Amino acid sequence: DIERGTSYLRLRPDRVAMQDATAQMAMLQFISSGLPRVAVPSTIHCDHLIEAQIGGEKDLARAKDINKEVYKFLETAGAKYGVGFWKPGSGIIHQIILENYAFPGLLMIGTDSHTPNGGGLGGLCIGVGGADAVDVMADIPWELKCPKVIGVRLTGKLSGWTSPKDVILKVAGILTVKGGTGAIVEYHGPGVDSISCTGMATICNMGAEIGATTSLFPYNARMEAYLKSTGREGVASAANSVKHLLTPDAKAPYDELIEIDLSTLEPHVNGPFTPDLANPISQLGDAAKKNDWPVDIRVGLIGSCTNSSYEDMGRCASIVKEALGHGVKSKIPFNVTPGSEQVRATIERDGIAQTLRDFGGTVLANACGPCIGQWDRKDVKKGEKNTIVTSYNRNFTGRNDANPATHCFVTSPELVTALSIAGRLDFNPMKDELTGADGKKFRLSDPFGDELPTRGFDPGQDTYEHPPADGTKVKVDVSPTSDRLQLLEPFDKWNGKDLTDLTILIKVKGKCTTDHISAAGPWLKYRGHLDNISNNMFITATNAENGELNKVRNQKTGEWGPVPGTARAYKAAGIPWCVVGDENYGEGSSREHAALEPRHLGGRAIIVKSFARIHETNLKKQGLLPLTFANPSDYDKIQPADKLSLLGLKDLAAGKPVECEIKHQDGKSERIKLNHSLNEQQIAWFKAGSALNRMKELAAK
């Protein structure tokens, strides 16, 4: 019997998608498996390594030059092992998937946490780490704990300044960043039909911010229209023939039910520093003053994988045209990121891009850019307190520009545009007036825009490279002297003994996302070189011992130093270590480097109050023990100088707690219980040293 939240499912996904930052490690792991070719349709998408500096064309050319070694590796590895290759400039992975591969009823995994974007087209699209992708590409059933189902019933109708983004911003405020963990969010109800297909994708995309396994909308006429507009009439016809299987059953049982009336839903601006701090636009100004958030906005940014559709751009252009008609432009720098080459080419053809440039906007490359920290920002110094507003999905500390003092707020692209005209957080376009160049007051009209281009999409440049039928003669080179790529060495097997006297590398205080464990931005260039990227491990996590970043005490020497350097010192001295963390540890990005780096530098266990789903799985895959306090208050019993011993590991079994002995500095000791969610297969990964090691053991047999 399958029990939600308990049973493990063994699934056969239809497709695998990988973005270039995570594809490097995924393909390196696949190469080390020794398999000749992927077993399911798979694609690589070059979107993460393009830094926003000047503008789209020049930034793309620069990225192609400085990343040529990585792009060549991904291109040749794709050709050799049967993986499609979307070249740099093609667009953001999730938009490419929506335009080309997603369909109602699809089961897909992607090595990016925002893979659920495909739920806007009725697909069950789930973000995973690279090792999970390797399993599926190797024809091994993919394991997933059976999710619970959270129903979100939508009534009423979207109108005015309220957009699809406001639905997920509202849901995030209700469920928080961990409220969706271990669950699929299923949207349903009569309000669904008032949302466009790309709007539904926006909502599903940002479901990652509540920890949801994925999010899903039922098949409807809006999806049918999008399929036809993107040249997939046959898919639409097939979906129409089985529509009863792609829509909710009557009286479907939900583990939790949320109801939202779209007719009364107010536009939201969430943040700063966390995407679940929900601020209705009518309350934002007062909240900013009360909390001492900088009211003056320094930069407005629209686009990203969450909000870069033709409809999004068109609605922003309607606001811009009205402002320009009054002689008003953006008061602040305004950056625009098209989601794909198809969207870029179409908004260029239809004059939307030029309208946004006339407003003062800079059209960036078809890539992730500032959303993931790929932004060469020059207008503020590090440490300078400032505010930016974006239509992105995440706003963790320092995520966009590596400045921990930047207050980032996420909202709809329409509100970003309106706030950029005013240049202030306390502007509400629904009631406040602006002053035109002639000195007259005016109020912005409700935004509007075509859901789909009336003249059809312009595909733009052809940026896809299909793998040859036979790739055996293709050569894949990884130079031993490269600082960007490094072939993987197998992790050591468990020695069969208890893990005793573990030193605590760091006791993390508060929020610890995968950004805190393995920062992005300038570190993205090392995603294919495990040893080099390990120099960013925990550098932005807060040390509970001193409240500082990247400063921990070496428990052997007593000296203070950076976290990665201290971990390397422990590894060189043969000292095994662990990490102690707080709630929802590892939320955010799917990056498996946040698990690979601790394993590479000698870590053996991560002990926390609770885990985010993807990160917990990634730790298991790399042979680390992910453990949770049976009593969360036991977190307070552990001090940084204590030694921890994990006992009874020879009898490690599914559902059986692990006993942990805490040896305090004063010589006293006590024991606590730690829980885990390892099943028998995952225990075999731990014993073998990693899931990849276990795969090789089974292949050898």
TrEMBL record:
Residues 504-631 form the Aconitase A/isopropylmalate dehydratase small subunit swivel domain. NCBIfam families: aconitase_mito (TIGR01340), PRK07229.1 (NF005558). One of its GO terms (biological process) is tricarboxylic acid cycle. InterPro entries: Acnase/IPM_dHydase_lsu_aba_1/3, Acoase/IPM_deHydtase_lsu_aba, Aconitase/3IPM_dehydase_swvl, Aconitase/IPM_isomerase, Aconitase_4Fe-4S_BS, Aconitase_4Fe-4S_dom, Aconitase_dom2, Aconitase_mito-like. It comes from the Eukaryota. Belongs to the aconitase/IPM isomerase family. Its cofactor is [4Fe-4S] cluster. Residues 8-423 form the Aconitase/3-isopropylmalate dehydratase large subunit alpha/beta/alpha domain. PROSITE patterns: ACONITASE_1, ACONITASE_2. The lineage of its organism: Eukaryota, Metazoa, Ecdysozoa, Arthropoda, Hexapoda. The keyword Transit peptide applies. GO terms for cellular component: cytosol; mitochondrion. Catalyzes the isomerization of citrate to isocitrate via cis-aconitate. The keyword Translocase does not apply. Its EC number is 4.2.1.3. Keywords: Iron, Iron-sulfur, Lyase, Metal-binding, Mitochondrion, Transit peptide, Tricarboxylic acid cycle. GO terms for molecular function: 4 iron, 4 sulfur cluster binding; aconitate hydratase activity; metal ion binding. Binds 1 [4Fe-4S] cluster per subunit. Its main location: mitochondrion. Pathway: Carbohydrate metabolism; tricarboxylic acid cycle; isocitrate from oxaloacetate: step 2/2. This is Aconitate hydratase, mitochondrial. It catalyses: citrate = D-threo-isocitrate. It is found in: Mitochondrion. Gene3D superfamilies: Aconitase, Domain 2, Aconitase, domain 3, Aconitase, domain 4.
